[in-house]
Write a structure and sequence with these properties.
This protein is 82% helix and 4% strand. It has 208 residues and is mainly alpha-helical. It has a three-stranded antiparallel beta sheet with strand order 1-2-3, with helices on one face. It is elongated and about 80 Å long. The N and C termini lie far apart (75 Å).
């Protein structure tokens, strides 16, 4: 009877050891799976971290007096350039600080009527993406120039919309054009990625 009782006590202990080993094995598999997932997605994590840091730096910078001063100069220059385009299009307008004014309509170029944020967004995405610096530089120069030119189109278009269709001015200013800028910035980034990969393909083939 004594041996039988010992056997019965040992048997559950053996089963507990087996289940503990199985649980440990499952935990090890989960840990290895998580580690493998993190390793496989390391480039994505690095991109997200760099992009987040650069965008965070922008939103900190906009709170500084230095940014306000630089932005005012930028808005003033944008108003002068847009006014030149309007005069070329036959509008007898002039600029007073950041306001474009004619006998029939006036528009003030304030914060929000600029391409600074979408340009920073585009540049941050390029800088965070793994690619040769030379291609990043060319992409930044070309993309920023396109976005700045698009901003002049926005100002001129809003002037004519406000002049001829005043009811549509608010929706275009607050809804349509912001979406256009986001889509343009993302499209430019995707186009740059395609250009970068096409340029890198011959090099990788030659290396292989």
């Amino acid at each position: 009877m004594s041996k039988q009782r010992n056997s019965s006590r040992n048997s559950p202990g053996g089963r507990t050891g087996d289940s503990g080993a199985a649980a440990g094995s499952a935990s090890d598999r989960q840990q290895r799976s998580r580690t493998a997932w993190l390793t496989e997605n390391a480039p994505l994590w690095r991109f997200g971290l760099k992009f987040g840091v650069l965008m965070g730096a922008y939103y900190v910078l906009v709170l500084t007096p230095f940014f306000d001063g630089m932005l005012y100069r930028y808005l003033s220059a944008s108003a002068w350039l847009a006014n030149g385009a309007l005069n070329w299009l036959g509008q007898d307008s002039h600029v007073a600080e950041i306001t474009i004014r004619s006998a029939r309509f006036a528009i003030t170029v304030r914060r929000g009527c600029d391409a600074v944020e979408p340009s920073w967004f585009f540049c941050a995405a390029l800088l965070a993406f793994p690619a040769p610096f030379a291609r990043k530089l060319w992409g930044i120069l070309a993309g920023a120039a396109i976005l700045q030119a698009l901003n002049l189109v926005r100002i001129v278009s809003l002037y004519f919309i406000g002049l001829h269709y005043p009811a549509a001015f608010g929706p275009f200013h607050l809804e349509v054009w912001p979406v256009v800028f986001v889509l343009t910035a993302v499209s430019l980034w995707l186009a740059w990625i395609g250009w970068t990969r096409r340029g890198a393909a011959p090099d990788s083939h030659a290396t292989a």
